[in-house]
Each structure stands twice: as structure tokens, then as C-alpha cells.
From TrEMBL:
It comes from Nocardioides marmorisolisilvae. SMART domains: AAA (SM00382). This is ABC transporter ATP-binding protein. GO terms for cellular component: plasma membrane. Coiled coil: none annotated. Keywords: ATP-binding, Nucleotide-binding, Transport. GO terms for molecular function: ATP binding; ATP hydrolysis activity; transmembrane transporter activity. Pfam families: ABC_tran. The lineage of its organism: Bacteria, Bacillati, Actinomycetota, Actinomycetes, Propionibacteriales. Residues 18-234 form the ABC transporter domain.
């Protein structure tokens, strides 16, 4: 796992790997996030819940540096992420953060192994080594047999596990998952949740946006967003 400076969260004994303070975001005349404070602890599975349109995905994308907040700060490893140039934030996403999108967003022209190898290749790893590592990660998630297959040949559950393998191929400190079970049947969704829990138990912080109470029930901690504000203590 990537090693970055973290601090002990007061009263918990756990280390804080990422901290958001007074994070706000506006689109047009709509304030989507309103001074949100949140800490992410090492090795925890954190669920962000709330009704549609409450700002869940926007918060996740701000935490993962995909979207820049309009105000407030997000700190990771002693770095204030909003002050970094886009090239540096992109590097952070390649090295320290893993990101799972709701519908996987696998590259359709690439095989499963090539999709998983992509972030490794972007880091400069040689192709042969990257494919070998990608195949090993696919095996970890039970889909190594689909390494040569393109996304169109995969079921929804298989594709989401390939997407998860891609997200963790770089051994990230934090995995951000946006509705990871939203497009899956109950059996496939339960397996993906099992794997997310296992990642957290192995030390990777998992931040999951979900509208599904069953998925949220697997988390160590749940916070709720309503109208852009957290209603549960962070």
C-alpha cells in the first residue's frame, strides 16, 4: 500500500488518511455541497448515503480529486489537494487512489487484463509485467478466466469485479466506489460487497456511495447527506 503520513483521529485510536473541511460545491445556482466536514480512517469501510440529488457522488468526486471544490480543503498525507496542479492530482489518482464508477467504465476495446493493466502502464510499468500483475489481481477477485475477454462478453457482476481489480491494481491507500452494487443483481452485489469488506480488513480505506440500505449495512460507519449537508456525525 502507498505510504503517506497520517494522523491519529482524536478519540478513536485510528489514523486519519484523508480529511475534508468545509467543502462546498456549486453548479450554476445550486449549492450541491454545503461546508461538508468528513474524515476517512485507515482500514475502514465508510458508506455515504442519502436520497438522489443529495450530493453523494459530488462529494465522492471531490474527495477523489476528480472534481475541484469551490471552497474548503481536502488534505491527504499532509498535502492540501485543492492546491495541487491538475497534473499532480492526476498522479495521486494513479498512485494513491483507486476509483470504481457505478457502471465500471471499462474501456470496451481492451481485454479485461488490459483494462486492469492500464493504470500500471500509465505509471510506466513494462507491458509484460503489467499484464502479469493484472492477471494476478483478476485471479484475486475470481475472474482470471476472463482475462482475454472484452467487456461486452462479461456479465454485470463480472465487469464490476474487473473494474474493482483495476481500481486496486496499484495498491491504493483509499478506494472510492460510486454505487458499486447499483447495477447488479443481489448475488453479484453481495459478492462485490464481500470483496470491498475484505479490502478494508486488509488495510485499504474504502469510501462507498450507496443508496442501498443492505450495502450500507456492511460498512463500519455510515454518514448521510441531505441537501448537501451531512446529517450524521463524521
Amino acid at each position: 500500500m502507498n505510504s503517506y503520513l497520517s494522523v491519529v483521529a482524536p478519540g478513536t485510536g485510528a489514523t486519519t488518511v484523508l480529511r475534508a473541511r468545509a467543502v462546498s460545491k456549486t453548479y450554476g445556482d445550486r449549492e450541491v455541497l454545503k461546508a461538508v466536514d468528513l474524515e476517512v480512517l485507515a482500514g475502514e469501510m465508510l458508506a455515504i448515503t442519502g436520497p438522489s440529488g443529495s450530493g453523494k457522488s459530488t462529494l465522492l468526486h471531490c474527495l477523489a480529486t476528480i472534481v475541484q471544490p469551490d471552497a474548503g480543503e481536502i488534505t491527504f498525507g499532509g498535502l492540501q489537494l485543492s492546491r495541487l496542479a491538475e497534473a499532480r492530482r492526476s498522479e495521486m489518482r494513479r498512485t494513491c487512489f483507486g476509483i470504481m464508477f457505478q457502471f465500471g467504465q471499462l474501456v470496451p476495446e481492451l481485454s479485461a487484463a488490459e483494462n486492469v493493466a492500464l493504470p500500471l502502464l500509465l505509471r510506466g510499468m513494462r507491458r509484460g509485467e503489467a499484464i502479469a500483475r493484472a492477471t494476478a489481481v483478476l485471479d484475486r477477485f475470481g475472474v482470471a478466466e476472463f482475462a482475454p475477454a472484452r467487456p461486452s462478453a462479461l456479465s454485470g457482476g463480472q465487469a464490476q469485479r474487473v473494474a474493482m481489480a483495476r481500481a486496486v491494481a496499484t495498491d491504493p491507500t483509499i478506494l472510492f466506489a460510486d454505487e458499486p452494487t447499483g447495477a447488479l443483481d443481489s448475488n453479484s452485489g453481495a459478492r462485490v460487497l464481500d470483496e470491498l469488506v475484505a479490502l478494508a480488513r486488509a488495510g485499504t480505506a474504502v469510501v462507498m456511495v450507496t443508496h442501498d440500505p443492505a450495502a450500507a449495512s456492511r460498512a463500519d460507519r455510515v454518514v448521510e447527506l441531505r441537501d448537501g449537508m451531512l446529517e450524521a456525525p463524521a
